[in-house]
Amino acid sequence: MDVILRSALGLDRDEHETFLADVIAGLSDNPKRLGAKYFYDAAGSLLFEEITGLPEYYPTRTEMGILRGARLMGELAPGTALVEFGSGSTAKVRVLLDAAPSLAAYVPVDISAEFLGAEATRLQDDYPHLKVLPVAADFTGLFELPPQVRGRPLVGFFPGSTIGNFEPHEADAFLRRAARILGPSSRLIVGVDLVKDERVLHAAYNDAAGVTARFNLNVLSRINRELGADFDLDAFAHRAFYNPARSRIEMHLQSLARQKVRVARRTIPFRAGETIHTENSYKYTLARFAAVAAAAGWETRAVFTDPAEYFSVHALTQS
Ligand code: AVJ
């Protein structure tokens, strides 16, 4: 399987240099921060897969149930292609592909080229009549679609409440960019996690088996390995809590002692108790998300939820 490597604005950006610059900038900031997209190296992608099967982590299984029960694809114009933003595992898109056998092409876009290639190959084997055209790109930036799908009717797919990782202004920018990439009269299917009982949210990010803690800490192993740092993983602890004022789960890594860490020939000091903010996971109400979508030029055609209203899937069209 050929994975097309395309980067923002057609420049040949060095991913390693970008990672290094982001980590140095984030750890030099006050408060310290790291981008959530850096969780997903090979080990992190596997840990996230493990999270999706945890009893406390309701989003994945709830969204799968919604996707199975909803008529999301409807009538498709001939030649329609499905573009998935941040594909990761292909379990969800398989539900859509099974519901829409007339789809001509599937374009998974993912930052993790390795994971993408393997998953795309398996999917191609299972759907021999579908053109599978993987694109290795950071979907938080502008990227180009493969030439084979240009001019086709397009449906975007952004499941998993990945949109929850974005700040409100970034969610707006993503939705506008998706409209530009997909073109006029396109559609977009978005999975959005909902505001709910704080205890349910808290448990989902503080699982008893400690997988989310390992997922959070893995970003430090990645920095050690890829950027030549010396983080002691036993000297940091996973912290996750709901911030009701901002409707978001926050994940942090808390330094358990006053310490210094070497990162790419720099020394980063930590106070005892100081945290690195590693992720936000915003939760929406149905009305709030519809308003965010509308502001970015997307009209809500249908919304599907589970009976408990834990999770939602929004079918949008360009207005
Ligand atoms: C993939 C961003 C949707 O926010 O629930 C899971 C990532 N972080 N457990 C989420 C995550 C901790 C997940 N998203």
Task: Describe what this molecule looks like in 3D.
This protein is α/β, with parallel strands linked by helices and about 325 residues long. The protein contains 9 helices and 15 strands. Strands 1, 3, 4, 5, 6, 7, 8, 14 and 15 form a 9-stranded mixed sheet that branches. The longest helix has 17 residues, at about 210-225. The two termini are about 35 Å apart. The structure holds N,N,N-trimethyl-histidine. The site of N,N,N-trimethyl-histidine has 11 residues, from strand 13.
Secondary-structure blueprint:
Elements: E1 4-5, H1 15-28, E2 32-33, H2 42-52, H3 58-69, E3 81-85, H4 91-99, E4 105-110, H5 113-126, E5 131-132, E6 135-136, E7 154-158, H6 168-182, E8 187-193, H7 198-204, H8 211-227, E9 236-243, E10 248-255, E11 259-263, E12 266-270, E13 275-282, H9 286-295, E14 298-305, E15 311-318
Parallel strand pairs: 1-6, 2-13, 3-4, 3-7, 4-5, 4-6, 7-8
Antiparallel strand pairs: 8-15, 9-10, 10-13, 11-12, 14-15
The structure holds N,N,N-trimethyl-histidine.
Task: Describe, in short, the structure shown.
By secondary structure, the protein is an alpha/beta fold. It has helices spanning 15-28, 42-52, 58-69, 91-99, 113-126, 168-182, 198-204, 211-227, 286-295, and strands at residues 4-5, 32-33, 81-85, 105-110, 131-132, 135-136, 154-158, 187-193, 236-243, 248-255, 259-263, 266-270, 275-282, 298-305, 311-318. 34% of the residues lie in helices and 25% in strands.
